[in-house]
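lol ok so funny story. i was supposed to be doing the assay writeup but got distracted and ended up predicting the structure for this chain instead. priorities right. anyway since i did it might as well share w the group, maybe its usefull for someone
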Amino acid sequence: MSLPGPEQRFELWMEEALASELAWGLESAGRLIRYRLQDGRLALPLWPSQESAALEAPDASEQPRRIGLDELLDGLLPAAAAQHEALAIYPLKGAAFIIEAQQLVDRLMEAWDEDD
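and the output, tada:
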């Protein structure tokens, strides 16, 4: 059985984030961890569930952290955009869907509006 690719995982993440109004990151020493992308930029990794985030934690120093969709939209994504950080959506074995913070805000708001 093959694993879904980054684009399919992004769609799964979107569905789950909108349905649960949650995303999950990894926290170490009280801060959300960031990945360094090949181009040198930082990216905030996000997963659709506590379990999927825990599976990608390299060791016990990183723990899943629940992030409400309001915290994501009102705090983390604007801060990421200001710092020119990207988002690594549903990383799995080193591969993730990379999206700019404002693009993710736009996609979430568009999907949210479609559900209303």
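Residues 6-110 form a domain with the Trna Endonuclease; Chain: A, domain 1 fold (CATH 3.40.1350.90). The chain has one domain: 6-110.
back to the writeup now i swear
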